[in-house]
Structure formats: structure tokens, C-alpha cells
Amino acid sequence: MSFDRQRRRALRHSTELNSDGLARLTGRDRRLVLDFLGQSAAANAYLLAQVARGALARDDIAGPMIGSYRSGKLDGVCIVGSNLVISEPASEAAIDDFAEYARRQGIPFWVAVGPDATSLALLLIASEVHATRQARPP
Questions:
Q1: pLDDT digits (tens, 9 = 90+) for 109-132
Q2: pTM here?
Q3: Dist. CA 79–CA 24, nearest whole Å
């Protein structure tokens, strides 16, 4: 099984989600994603461009597009690839979820893109994870 297929299986589809957690966003979520990202279209220009390019249907465009849900409502969107690109807005819980997902999946992202506080939070989480990995005995 390919790495991408394993990552997709680790996420539930948003139609299977009825409470809190992460879900792989797909073409069925297009209207919801566009409405959410449209709240701050200028800050979300990259994410909106990836939706227009077909990122909801294909992971190979920019990486999987993931949504974070709280109480059944979308509260953050992220593309997870070599860069983590996070929506504005994104709740603190969503930021934690995205960082934890990247950690669990072993995705070595190099750059976190989003509002300063969001990027800093993700990079701090990543540095803690990196330090923990370095401290483990071989």
C-alpha cells in the first residue's frame, strides 16, 4: 500500500464525521470549504487556488486537504505536504490537530504557512516532536 493511500485511510471522510476530529476533504465538501475559506479570502488565497486546481479531488496537486471539525462544524483547513498551509481562521484545537496529524503520519514539513501565531504554534509543536525523537536512544 502506498504512503499516500495509508495517509488517506488514517482520516475519516467528512461525511462519516459527526463530532470532533480531522477529516479528508473531498469534492463533496467544496461548497463548505469555499464558504469557510471565503471568510478571509485574501489570507486564504493559496488554499482557494488549490481548491480551484482540484486539490479536493487529488492529493498530488498540493497534498491532502484536511478539515478540523468541532461540534460538527468546520473550524480549520490545512493542506499537508512539505509545507503545512493553514487557513485563517483556524482554532487552536485545529492547529493542534494538524500538527499531531503531521507528527503521527511522519510528515517532515519544512514550513508552516499561516498567520504568525498559527505558524509559530505549529513550528513549536514540530520542534518539540523533533527534540523528543532526537532524545530517544537508538
A1: 666 666 666 667 766 766 665 454
A2: 0.73
A3: 10
